[in-house]
Here is the input.
Amino acid sequence: MARFWSAALVALLLLLIPGSLKAEEDDAAKETQKAEQWKISAELRWRGEFRDNTDFQPADDFDAFLGQRIRLRLLLRAHKRLSFFVEGQDVWLFGAERDKVIHNLATNLYQAYADWSLAASSPWQLRAGRQELIYGKERLVGAFAWDNVGRSFDAARLRYTRSAWTVDGFWGRLVDVRRAGAPHRPGHRDLYGVYLSQAPKGSARRTEFYSLFFHDGLRTAGEASRPAETTGIVTLGFRREHAPATGFRYEVENAWQFGERGPDGHRAAALVASAGYAWGGRWRPAVSFEYDFATGDNNPSDGDSREFENLFPTNHPYYGYADLVGLRNLHDLRVTASARPHARLAVQADYHRFLLASSRGPWKNAGGRVLGLDPTGAAGRDLGQEFDLTVSVPLWEQHLALQGGYSIFLPGRFAIRTRGPETHHFAYLQTTLRF
Here is the structure.
């Protein structure tokens, strides 16, 4: 069905585009009115990725693949209080057929929702349908745009806006992303939430409060051989940010969790704190220092869950671009320096020092896959260090951009003893075209 709707969208775009090209120059006013009624856009992205020593073992395991993503979008304003948005995408990975984690979905319907408001000046707005959910810096709820497939929900969101305050209430069910022919995952993953944001106009400050409830219908067995049950976790948190174009800037986010992970009681917490300074001038240099913490489970057999549940994040920009670490069982000390040597060149360098919060808890990557575990705790907590270099080149305003990066992960004692001693290398080159 998703392929049918995406194919229908492509056919509709092909019918509409020629009509817009026939417009005459002397009919500018009419064209402006049409542009207000509907808008067509597209994004084409290609990214080559290269990894070496993925398993941290001496054997040669160099891997490379090319990811292609094409997204076509149609925005239709049927009425001043009602609009529709449809986005189809086509995703292919060339050279990654053996990787069972990577998705290869061909054509699918990524977003399809309607926006409706009571009146033109009404503070209430309802969005219903398949959509992205993006909140804060996406550390807990995000669209995961780095991924070739991305993340969307079949959801309903009611928004109230008054002065500097915005209040969202929403429910969303994660779209089941799977390889062609693979069975559906048993049990839906649902997210309910209330999210309050205060962002005064003209101010660099932003304050957010949130309450989230995550329900996973997949039945999970307990640590102490308890019968499998579903998961229900509540997350309460706040975020405060001050991010001026120049000068001192900071961010603090704190989250607490309670509930049940399967039959086990769940208690966990996370903290993010960063501070930095940005200068003006031609090069616009900036430097920042960040500390990320998330609890881990130091007793994997006591029937109590203590590892922080990362929910639905966009982890890639925060805990090392090699994506070997996520916001769970973690201490991360990060230093970032950036500059713009040219109007069309941005350079950023990052250093990470990773430690496990609990030596007996698992080491998991950005997607939640277990990479290492020592239930005895004898391997210690030293996970390793990572150096990242990112170069961005916006060639043509917002239409064409190049980005490349290189990451090197040096394993610490825990990584060496649970996975291997070899240095991990990751590099990529990405081209994005929008029109």
About this structure: The first helix runs from residue 2 to 21.
